[in-house]
């Protein structure tokens, strides 16, 4: 268990570009030659996604900046007071990461001159939880530091939105999100702890081969590619055990069990994945977020922020309720974060 | 921050050497874009660099293996694994990082693996700051391995106007409550408006337009570099060094030895002059025979300074770097 000072999520915001694309349109444009009518209907029903928001010209840093500015305004945070900026973007940015990072640009854009900026690779949809784990540690260990801004900006690579074509595992939407953390604040949710598990043998299950050292100029491979069979194998064989161990480690020291979690916040990958996560956590329909998948699709780790914001605005939480962020992503990285509203 | 010590540092360099004079004949250098006072072709101070045919992930793996062996620590003992490679790896980042591959190949089944993707050549310091904070705040994380592996593409060995690069990797193991190599303090400072001075363009997100092999090359905005970083550099180093000294109640005289990147001879001379550091207090020997290995310079120079007897038990060492972003960083280590 991490020793965390009293650190709260003071506020959170998300931003999606105005353009909407229906999933039918995306499936038609990306799959027409390879998918039968029956597959098509099944894809739409299994995914549970109606449409996604799509960038026209916006870059990932703009998506992150729009969300960050909203979060700062909402919380009344002066950018000059930000001590840490942490980037949890999982997809490529406008220049190659790790040489370039949108945290540097945004430091300048929003005027957070004194902030220590850091970004994390490798965590996929769990990147938010990786960033939360490190940022709460940085705020705890640096007595002078009080405020952190976590942010991400995700734009589907090469405009390809279907993951695992033609048997779509999800449809990627574009968007950004930001969270303001504050030490010794009475913000909306206190962070109790984060547990992460990584499985190195799954490092290449989901990646973008094009653009890296092996295929630096390969346009065709510059897209998210998933080894579906390996992913399904590891998920079906290990997810329950890994999540069980992580939640036990997180909940036991504070005397909680899963039944006392009011709300589970997971990524918006697909309706099928949502059912799997509900089974793993033994959570019935009203305890697991399900309201955003249809209208946003999957925006990587930003899903968690969108779902967190909805849980609050839909009045699903009351003071004192426990929330569990639970996610799995590239790397392969599994994570859970416990919060008290 | 006084509980964490460096158990071991080590590095891997490929055996194959290339003469810098040969590389100069192969790569196009925009000599008119740099100061007339310096002859880049003659004055880098770098004679040979190391080149590898292996992928960056293999260089990380080899460095990690070496440091585990040196520390006599089993892979299962590693609780935290942090990659700090600062240039492109096998696949596109931040989606992929070599750290998962390293975790798999070395069987670090108990480690939480992640990678830091900011700092450029100062990513050593950024990763160190993050790792130390997490180790201090977590009862479960007692031992951490930090590793980087860098290979520059053929045709992009020269980072004009700052250096000529070698391929290689560096790694270090941190342990809580370890009384050697204690990390007394770390400071990082970045200026965001300089985010685009050094960059690798990559394939455009919309996949439009032609892409050639230079998409993965390091690019420099020479005009911005000359107008911003050159005049700021010494000032920023002074600022970051003073800051880390002040926080630890130390003065510059308390520092016994300095570790600094191997960019060029004139860069090292300028740094020493600006900080008033005599040559016997800074490790310079690797510049001529290795050149610049990105963020691993700090590991390589530290290791060699120890083995050459410049850093001995009880000495106070300052590790200093700057890097793309643009970062200036300093750490103090009590050997």
Descriptors for this entry?
heterodimer; A: 341 residues; alpha+beta; nine-stranded mixed β-sheet; B: 335 residues; five-stranded mixed β-sheet; four-stranded mixed β-sheet
Describe, in short, the structure shown.
Chain A has helices at residues 23-31, 37-47, 60-75, 102-110, 127-141, 228-251, 271-280, 293-296, 302-313; strands spanning 7-15, 20-22, 51-53, 84-87, 116-121, 147-154, 162-163, 170-171, 175-183, 189-198, 206-207, 225-226, 261-265, 322-329, 333-340. By secondary structure, chain A is an alpha+beta fold.
Structure description:
The complex is a heterodimer of chains A (341) and B (335). By secondary structure, chain A is α+β, with helices and mostly antiparallel strands. Chain A is built from nine helices and 15 strands. In chain A, strand 4, helix 4 (102-110) and strand 5 form a beta-alpha-beta unit. The mean pLDDT of chain A is 93. Chain B has helices spanning 20-26, 40-43, 56-71, 99-106, 123-137, 222-247, 265-275, 286-290, 297-307, and strands at 4-12, 17-19, 48-50, 80-83, 112-116, 143-150, 158-159, 163-164, 168-176, 182-190, 198-199, 219-220, 257-259, 316-323, 327-334. Chain B has a five-stranded mixed sheet with strand order 1-9-6-4-5, sandwiched between helices. In chain B, strands 10-15-14-13 form a four-stranded mixed sheet, sandwiched between helices. In chain B, strands 2-3 form a two-stranded antiparallel sheet. The radius of gyration of chain B is 19 Å and the shape is globular. By secondary structure, chain B is of the alpha+beta class. Helices cover 31% and strands 23% of the residues of chain B. Chains A and B meet through helix 4, strand 5, helix 5, strand 10 and strand 11 of A and helix 4, strand 5, helix 5, strand 10 and strand 11 of B. Strand 5 (116-121) of chain A pairs antiparallel with strand 5 of chain B.
């Amino acid at each position: 268990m991490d020793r965390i000072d009293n650190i709260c999520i003071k506020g959170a915001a998300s931003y999606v570009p105005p353009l909407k694309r229906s999933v039918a349109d995306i499936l038609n444009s990306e799959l027409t030659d390879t998918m039968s009518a029956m597959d098509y209907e099944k894809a739409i029903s299994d995914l549970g996604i109606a449409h996604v928001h799509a960038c026209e010209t916006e870059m990932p840093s703009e998506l992150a900046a729009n969300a960050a500015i909203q979060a700062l305004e909402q919380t009344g945070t002066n950018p000059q007071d930000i001590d840490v900026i942490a980037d949890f973007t999982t997809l490529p940015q406008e220049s190659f990461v790790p040489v370039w990072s949108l945290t540097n640009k945004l430091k300048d854009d929003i005027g957070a001159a004194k902030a220590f900026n850091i970004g994390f690779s490798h965590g996929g949809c769990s990147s938010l939880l990786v960033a939360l784990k490190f940022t709460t540690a940085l705020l705890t260990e640096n007595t002078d530091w009080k405020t952190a801004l976590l942010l991400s900006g995700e734009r589907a690579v090469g405009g390809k939105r279907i993951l695992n074509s033609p048997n779509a595992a999800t449809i990627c939407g574009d968007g950004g999100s930001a969270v303001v953390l504050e030490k010794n604040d009475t913000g909306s949710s206190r962070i109790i702890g984060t547990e992460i598990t990584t499985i190195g043998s799954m490092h290449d299950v989901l990646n973008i081969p094009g653009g890296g050292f092996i295929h630096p100029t390969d346009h065709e491979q510059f897209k998210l590619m998933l080894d579906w069979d390996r992913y399904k194998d590891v998920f079906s064989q290990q997810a329950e055990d890994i999540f069980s161990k992580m939640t036990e480690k997180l909940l036991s020291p504070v005397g909680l069990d899963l039944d006392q979690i009011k709300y589970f916040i997971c990524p918006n990958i697909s309706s099928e994945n949502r059912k799997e996560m509900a089974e793993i956590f033994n959570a019935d329909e009203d305890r697991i977020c399900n309201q955003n998948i249809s209208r946003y699709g999957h925006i990587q780790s930003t899903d968690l922020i969108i779902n967190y914001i909805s849980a609050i605005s839909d009045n699903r939480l009351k003071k004192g309720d426990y929330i569990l962020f639970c996610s799995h992503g590239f790397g392969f990285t599994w994570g859970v974060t416990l919060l008290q509203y | 921050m006084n509980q964490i010590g460096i158990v071991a540092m080590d590095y891997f360099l490929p055996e194959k050497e290339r003469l810098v004079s040969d590389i100069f004949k192969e790569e196009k250098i925009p000599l008119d874009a740099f100061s007339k006072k310096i002859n880049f072709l003659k004055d880098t101070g770098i004679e040979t660099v190391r080149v590898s045919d292996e992928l960056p992930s293999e260089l990380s793996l080899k460095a990690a293996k070496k440091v585990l062996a040196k520390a006599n620590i089993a892979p299962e003992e590693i609780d935290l694994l942090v990659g700090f490679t600062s240039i492109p790896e096998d696949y596109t980042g931040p989606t992929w990082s070599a750290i998962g591959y390293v975790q798999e190949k070395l069987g670090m089944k108990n480690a939480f693996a992640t990678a830091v993707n900011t700092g450029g050549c100062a990513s050593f310091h950024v990763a160190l700051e993050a790792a130390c904070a997490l180790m201090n705040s977590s009862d479960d994380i007692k031992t951490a391995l930090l590793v980087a592996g860098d290979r520059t593409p053929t045709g992009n060995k020269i980072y004009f106007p700052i250096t000529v690069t070698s391929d290689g990797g560096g790694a270090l193991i941190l342990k809580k409550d370890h009384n050697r190599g204690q990390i007394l303090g770390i400071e990082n400072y970045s200026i965001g408006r300089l985010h685009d001075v050094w960059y690798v363009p990559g394939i455009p997100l919309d996949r439009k337009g032609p892409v050639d092999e230079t998409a993965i090359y390091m690019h420099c905005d020479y005009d911005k570099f000359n107008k911003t970083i050159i005049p700021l550099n010494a000032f920023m180093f002074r600022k970051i060094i003073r800051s880390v000294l002040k926080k630890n109640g130390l003065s510059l005289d308390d520092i016994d030895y300095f570790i600094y990147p191997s960019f060029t001879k004139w860069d090292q001379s300028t740094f020493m002059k600006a900080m008033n550091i005599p040559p016997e207090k800074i490790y310079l020997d690797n510049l001529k025979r290795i050149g610049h290995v990105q963020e691993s310079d700090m590991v390589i120079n530290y290791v060699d300074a120890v083995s050459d007897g410049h850093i001995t038990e009880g000495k106070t060492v300052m590790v200093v770097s700057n890097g793309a972003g643009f970062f200036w960083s300093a750490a103090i280590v009590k050997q």
